[in-house]
């Protein structure tokens, strides 16, 4: 069983795989409470769905990619069983995680990729990141900073040099200026990707997309 908020078909809106059609599985519940969370509806309620039913939904989906998101998907009791199955299906799975859960046992699975946050000061969850997760990331994974203000930007900039060759995404919080963020990155000569939340540009602040 996984406790699910909803499943839906959409375009990946965040990070390195932005723009790719994916089948989304939004799990329910999160261990964090970021101040600017845009999916607080996933904190409560939800519906328990047997893994077999989800596997059938994934099989029936036209998309090559599955996005395993939340909430925090890695707190689900059967997250490993689900991801182990996914690694053998031929589909690719992107895990969107807060960085606060040990990803070690998941990162060795084939066809499983990580969009891993490092929480910034404005989230009020700055101390939640597990540093050892950095070592578990592979070439096709990436780290994402969701940035609201100058203090967040300075925090993210201070972390970039410790991330080695890992891809880094700077994403403005919804309502924060993309232009300001882009110009800050250019001024500082940072080797990061500046990316908006594509799905919000397309559909606005809305559930199920
Ligand atoms: S980790 Fe994600 S789902 Fe959880 S509170 Fe933060 S933004 Fe919301």
Task: Please summarize what this structure is.
This protein is of the alpha/beta class and 209 residues long. It has helices spanning 51-60, 79-87, 104-107, 133-136, 150-160, 178-188, 198-203, and strands at residues 2-11, 21-27, 47-49, 65-69, 92-97, 112-117, 142-147, 167-172, 193-194.
Question: How would you describe what is shown here?
Answer:
With 209 residues, this protein is of the alpha/beta class. The protein has a single domain, classed as TIM Barrel (Alpha-Beta Barrel), CATH 3.20.20. It contains 7 helices and 9 strands. The protein has a 9-stranded mixed beta sheet with strand order 3-1-2-4-5-6-7-8-9. Strand 7, helix 5 and strand 8 form a beta-alpha-beta unit. The longest helix has 11 residues. It is globular. The mean pLDDT is 96. Iron/sulfur cluster (SF4) binds next to loops.
| Rg from alpha-carbon coordinates | 16 Å
Which strands sit side by side, in order, in the main sheet? 3-1-2-4-5-6-7-8-9
Shape type: globular
CATH class membership: Alpha Beta
CATH superfamily: Aldolase class I
CATH topology: TIM Barrel
Number of domains: 1
User: How many E-type strands?
Assistant: 9
Helix % is: 25-40%
What is the N-to-C succession of helices and strands? EEEHEHEHEHEHEHEH
Number of helices: 7
Class from helix and strand fractions: alpha/beta
Strand content: 15-25%
Low-confidence stretches: none
Mean pLDDT: 96
Distance between the termini: 23 Å
Bound ligand species: iron/sulfur cluster
The description of the largest β-sheet is: 9 strands, mixed
């Amino acid at each position: 069983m996984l406790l699910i908020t909803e499943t839906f078909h959409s375009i990946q809106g965040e990070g390195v795989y932005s723009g790719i059609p994916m089948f989304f599985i939004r799990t329910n519940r999160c261990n964090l409470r970021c101040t600017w969370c845009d999916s607080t509806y996933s904190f409560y309620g939800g519906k328990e769905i047997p893994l077999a039913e989800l596997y059938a939904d994934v099989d029936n989906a036209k998309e090559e990619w599955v996005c395993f998101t939340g909430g925090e998907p890695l707190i689900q009791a059967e997250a490993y069983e689900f991801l182990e199955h996914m690694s053998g299906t031929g589909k690719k799975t992107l895990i969107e995680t807060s960085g606060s859960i040990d990803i070690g046992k998941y990162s060795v699975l084939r066809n499983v990729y990580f969009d891993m946050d490092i929480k910034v000061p404005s989230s009020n969850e700055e101390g939640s990141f597990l540093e050892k997760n950095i070592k578990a990331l592979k070439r096709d994974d990436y780290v994402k900073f969701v940035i609201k203000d100058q203090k967040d930007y300075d925090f993210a900039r201070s972390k970039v040099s410790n991330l080695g060759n890992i891809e880094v995404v700077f994403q403005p919080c919804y309502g924060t200026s993309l232009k300001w963020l882009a110009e800050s990155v250019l001024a500082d000569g940072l080797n990061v990707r500046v990316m908006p939340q594509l799905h919000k540009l397309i559909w606005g602040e809305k559930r199920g997309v």
